[in-house]
Write a structure and sequence with these properties.
Length: 396
C-alpha cells in the first residue's frame, strides 16, 4: 500500500499520527509513544479508552446479535430511550448514527410541524457561527460560510441571527413563516461560546407563547459534558426537541433526536427512518454509558473537575496574559482564546504527548474524557505551560 493520501479522500488535514491502543485518558501511537488525551475523539470517548465494563458488554452482545433493523423491537434501544428521557421530560426518541443525522431528523420534524400545526411555516432561525453538521440540510443550518462555500444552492428556509442577541432573534420569530429556533447551548466548533441563561429563557418563553419550536443541538454539549446530563437543565429550560450524539456511544456511532411527548405523534410511520439507527450492538453499550454518566455523583464530579480545570487555565492566563486573552466554557467543555493562531501550539503539544484541538483559528478547545482526574488535568496543563513559556521566550 502507498501513502494513505492515495486512497483516503482528503476531507481532513490529518496529523501524521496513528493510535493503536488506549487506556483511561491515555492513548498510544504506532511507535509506542504515550499521549494524554484532552480531546476524547472530539467529545466522544467520555468514559475514556478500554473501559472494562463497556468491553464486557460489547463482547457479550457481539456474541448474541448485532443488528436486526428497526422493523423489529429492540429491547436495548427502548431501555436507552427510557434512560435518556425519563429524568428530563415526557418525550420520545428517534435513533440514528451521528450528530448530523440527529439534526436532520429535527429539521424534518420542524417542517412537518410547520405544515401540520403552523399553516406551512417552515423557516428555522439559527445562529451565526453555529455548527450543526455536514449533510445538506445541516450545512444549510450552519452559520459559518467556510462550511457552506461552493455547495450552493443550499437547502432553503434558514435565517441567521447573532448568538446571544435576543432582540434580533425576537424580531425574526414574529414572522408567520418561522416555525422555530435551532441553537447550540454552547457553540462548540464556533469557539466555545456559552449562551446565557437569560437568552435561552427568553427564547423559551417567546417560542412557547407563539407555539413555535425550540430545538437545541446538544450533540457536543450533551451527555454530561458540561456538568449536567444535558446543558439545557442548567439553563433552566426544556426544549421541544433536542439532539444528542458524540458522547452517547463512547465511540460507537449513534445519534438521538428527542421530541416532546405532546407533539411527537406528528412524526408517524414512514416519515423518517434509519437502517442502522439504534441497533442492538450500539445501544447495549450506549445504555451503560448513559446510565453511568447521568448519575448525580458522576455529574457532580464533572462539575468539580471542570471548575478545577478552569482555575488552572486562569492561573496560566495570569502567567501569559499576552497569549491567553480569555477562558470560556462550562464543565469539561472549555476553550482558551489566544492572541495568536493555535495550530503551532497544537503541533507542539502533540510532539510533547498532549492531545488538544484548535477551533475557530484562535481557540484551543479542551474536551477531555469525563473520567479525567485532577492529576491528569495538571499533567496536561504543565505541558501547555512549557509550550507557552517557550513561545514567550521566543517573542522576547
Ligand atoms: N452539532 C454539533 C453542535 C456538533 O458539534 C457536531 C460535530 O462536531 C455536529 C452537530 C455533527 O455531528 P457529527 O459529526 O456526528 O455528524
Amino acid at each position: 500500500m502507498k501513502n494513505h493520501k492515495d486512497y483516503i479522500l482528503q476531507t481532513y488535514n490529518r496529523y501524521d499520527i496513528s493510535f493503536t491502543s488506549g487506556d483511561g485518558v491515555y492513548l498510544y501511537d504506532t511507535n509506542g509513544k504515550k499521549y494524554i488525551d484532552m480531546l476524547a475523539g472530539i467529545g466522544v470517548c467520555s468514559l475514556g479508552y478500554s473501559d472494562k465494563e463497556l468491553i464486557k458488554i460489547l463482547t457479550e452482545q457481539s456474541k448474541k446479535i448485532w443488528h436486526t433493523s428497526n422493523l423489529f423491537n429492540i429491547k436495548t434501544q427502548e431501555e436507552l430511550a427510557y434512560e435518556i428521557i425519563s429524568s428530563l421530560f415526557p418525550g420520545k426518541v428517534f435513533f440514528s448514527n451521528s450528530g448530523a443525522e440527529a439534526n436532520e431528523a429535527a429539521i424534518k420534524f420542524a417542517r412537518l410541524y410547520g405544515n401540520k400545526v403552523l399553516n406551512g411555516a417552515y423557516k428555522i432561525i439559527t445562529a451565526t457561527n453555529s455548527f450543526h453538521g455536514r449533510t445538506y440540510a445541516t450545512i444549510s443550518a450552519t452559520g459559518q460560510e467556510k462550511v457552506k462555500k461552493d455547495f450552493e444552492p443550499l437547502c432553503p428556509g434558514f435565517i441567521f441571527v447573532e448568538y446571544n442577541n435576543f432582540e434580533e432573534l425576537d424580531t425574526q420569530l414574529k414572522n408567520n413563516d418561522v416555525v422555530g429556533v435551532m441553537l447550540e447551548p454552547i457553540q462548540g466548533e464556533g469557539g466555545i461560546i456559552t449562551g446565557s441563561n437569560e437568552y435561552f429563557q427568553l427564547i423559551r418563553k417567546t417560542t412557547r407563547e407563539q407555539n413555535k419550536l425550540l430545538i437545541l443541538d446538544e450533540v457536543q454539549s450533551g451527555v454530561g459534558r458540561t456538568g449536567d446530563f444535558y446543558t439545557f437543565q442548567g439553563l433552566g429550560i426544556q426544549p421541544d426537541i433536542f439532539t444528542s450524539a458524540k458522547g452517547i456511544g463512547n465511540g460507537l456511532p449513534i445519534g438521538a433526536t428527542i421530541i416532546r411527548e405532546e407533539i411527537s405523534d406528528i412524526m408517524g410511520a414512514g416519515k423518517h427512518g434509519s437502517t442502522f439507527g439504534g441497533n442492538p450492538l450500539v445501544t447495549s453499550v450506549a445504555l451503560e454509558v448513559v446510565k453511568r454518566i447521568k448519575s448525580q455523583k458522576f455529574l457532580k464530579n464533572v462539575r468539580e473537575k471542570g471548575k478545577y480545570f478552569k482555575e488552572q487555565l486562569t492561573k496560566l492566563q495570569l502567567l501569559y496574559p499576552d497569549i491567553i486573552l480569555e477562558i470560556r466554557g462550562k464543565g469539561l467543555m472549555l476553550g482558551i482564546v489566544l492572541s495568536v493562531t493555535c495550530n503551532d501550539i497544537v503541533n507542539k503539544s502533540l510532539s510533547k504527548g498532549l492531545i488538544i484541538n484548535c477551533t475557530a483559528n484562535k481557540v484551543i478547545r479542551f474536551l477531555p474524557p469525563l473520567i479525567i482526574s485532577k492529576e491528569e488535568i495538571n499533567k496536561g496543563i504543565s505541558i501547555l505551560s512549557q509550550i507557552l513559556a517557550e513561545i514567550k521566550e521566543k517573542n522576547k
